[in-house]
């Protein structure tokens, strides 16, 4: 396992992050503690040090399991957890990114994890009602109190992140050092704004659902249509969902064919593409319900892709240029802006 610097934080984290959303069975997609322990131990043995969880994962079970798993090696682990999503549906203050929910969520996570501090504390999503001055000051207060070392944000528009970091830097507060975003071979929307943002503000990108809910593992094909599991959740329009499902199936089959030619699994190829093509070095968050799945994912760290292989995968799901980037990069606009020197 190689290590990467996590944005401007100077934290050194392993190139694959272990996601702990499957630690616990309350959501119906996880695993019992014995299996999770084997997954955790195998990840650590492979050199992994970056663990990602959240206060709501399996209603807190994920954090409780991790408290037992990290015992005796807390200093080695770069531990990340999140807050903002509602932890109690009957309490109007138990959700959102405002100060009260931040404080009560953080304190609860510290108790469940049995630790004094969190290495990386994520805002799980932008709630659109908490003001950025309140959010950044509330987060910075917890950094100054020593309960958080670094902060990140997930599922927020690029302009929100840019505005929040600008505000924090102007007020000598802690800026976001990392982004956690939905990104994989069939969901590449973040490339339009977030890559440039990450470069400009020295932020890391971690990718959730890097295998598109299993679509990119090779287990789905024309006989096992994943439309309800993957494409359907990305859109509410049934016709659009059908078109997207067909496109995703084409991508999955092409990925499987390329993996066969290279001599690796489709999952390994999809993860290697994620990690090797971005200008900021994306860190995939891998989730495994058993040791076999983990070992397959970990093997992606040793797979080095040639430039032509990355390009071939790029072309499977290449984004259509959109405004304003399409205009700004056009020869017409550059001539209008710079004249004959464009």
SS content category: alpha/beta
Share of β-strand residues: 5-15%
Average pLDDT metric: 93
Q: What is the helix content? A: 40-55%
Number of helices: 12
Largest sheet composition: 8 strands, parallel, barrel
CATH topological fold name: TIM Barrel
- Shape estimate: globular
CATH homologous group name: NADP-dependent oxidoreductase domain
Radius of gyration, whole Å: 21 Å
Counting structural domains, the number is: 1
The end-to-end distance, rounded to whole angstroms, is 44 Å
Spatial arrangement of strands, main beta sheet: 3-4-5-6-7-8-9-10
* Low-pLDDT stretches: 228-236
Explain the overall architecture.
The protein is α/β, with parallel strands linked by helices. It has one domain: TIM Barrel. It is built from 12 helices and 10 strands. It has helices at 33-45, 61-69, 99-113, 132-144, 158-170, 194-200, 238-262, 266-277, 291-298, 307-316, 325-328, 331-338, and strands at residues 3-5, 12-14, 17-19, 50-52, 78-83, 118-123, 148-154, 176-182, 204-208, 283-286. The strands form 2 sheets. Strands 3-4-5-6-7-8-9-10 form an 8-stranded parallel beta barrel, surrounded by 5 helices. Helix 1 (33-45) links the parallel strand 3 (17-19) and strand 4 (50-52). Helix 4 (132-144) crosses helix 5. The longest helix has 25 residues, at 238-262. Residues 228-236 have low confidence and may be disordered.
């Amino acid at each position: 396992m190689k290590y990467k610097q996590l944005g401007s934080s100077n934290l050194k984290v392993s190139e694959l992050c272990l996601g702990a959303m499957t630690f616990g069975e309350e959501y119906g997609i996880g695993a019992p503690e014995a299996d999770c322990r084997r997954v955790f131990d195998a990840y650590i043995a492979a050199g992994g040090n970056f663990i990602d969880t959240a206060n709501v994962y399996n209603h807190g079970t994920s954090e409780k399991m991790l408290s037992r798993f990290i015992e005796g090696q807390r200093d080695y682990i770069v531990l990340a957890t999140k807050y903002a999503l509602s932890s109690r549906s009957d309490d109007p203050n138990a959700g959102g990114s405002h100060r009260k929910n931040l404080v009560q969520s953080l304190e609860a996570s510290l108790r469940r994890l049995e630790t004094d501090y969190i290495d990386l504390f994520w805002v799980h999503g932008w709630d659109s009602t908490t003001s950025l001055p309140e959010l950044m000051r509330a987060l910075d207060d917890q950094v100054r109190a020593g309960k958080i070392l670094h902060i990140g944000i997930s599922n927020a528009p690029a302009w929100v992140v840019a505005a929040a970091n600008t505000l924090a830097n102007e007020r000598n507060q802690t800026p976001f050092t990392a982004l956690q975003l939905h990104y994989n071979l069939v969901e590449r929307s973040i490339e339009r704004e977030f890559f440039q943002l990450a470069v400009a503000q020295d932020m890391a990108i971690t990718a959730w659902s890097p295998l598109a809910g299993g679509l990119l593992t090779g287990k789905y094909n024309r006989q096992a249509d994943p439309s309800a599991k993957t494409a359907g959740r990305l859109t509410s329009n049934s016709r659009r969902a059908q078109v997207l499902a067909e496109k995703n199936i084409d991508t999955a089959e092409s990925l499987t064919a390329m993996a066969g030619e290279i001599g690796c699994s489709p999952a390994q190829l999809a993860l290697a593409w994620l990690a090797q093509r971005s200008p900021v070095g994306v860190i995939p968050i891998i989730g495994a319900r058993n040791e076999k799945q983990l070992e397959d994912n970990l093997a992606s760290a040793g797979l080095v892709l040639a430039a032509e292989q990355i390009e071939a995968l790029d072309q499977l799901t290449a984004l259509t240029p959109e405004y304003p980037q399409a205009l700004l990069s056009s020869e017409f606009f550059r001539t209008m802006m710079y004249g004959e020197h464009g």
